[in-house]
Specification:
Rossmann fold, 111 residues, 2 domains, four-stranded mixed sheet
């Protein structure tokens, strides 16, 4: 895996990826997992990285990690999020309230 900090490394602070960096990341994704790390908000990732890379083919999308999160998707609620992942183990990073909501949704789904 190759890891990069976002702001002032891949792009100027809060700016979208420049074209040469975008092309280099797309090429790197064909041969390696790539992790982009930032302390910014999720919307910042969307505008700086995700929107600039565009729709990636699945074989490349699984290699892109944003702060360790694969396949960045925003879901309206916990139930929708849980329904969108394939069967098998799920890693959940959440605050206490969100974790409890997920636990309850899983319990309801098992009934």
């Amino acid at each position: 895996m190759t890891a990069f900090d976002l702001d002032d490394t891949l792009a100027p602070s809060k700016a979208p990826l420049p074209d040469p960096v975008r092309e280099a990341l797309l090429a790197l994704l064909t041969v390696s997992d790539v992790c982009v790390i930032s302390g910014g908000q999720i919307e910042q990732f969307r505008t700086q990285v995700v929107e600039r890379l565009g729709q990636l083919p699945d074989d490349l999308a699984v290699r892109l990690h944003l702060d360790g999160v694969q396949r960045l998707e925003q879901c309206p609620d916990v139930r929708t999020a849980l329904a969108s992942v394939p069967a098998g183990p799920v890693d959940l990073v959440a605050n206490y309230t969100a974790f409890q909501d997920a636990r309850k949704a899983l319990a309801r789904a098992r009934r």
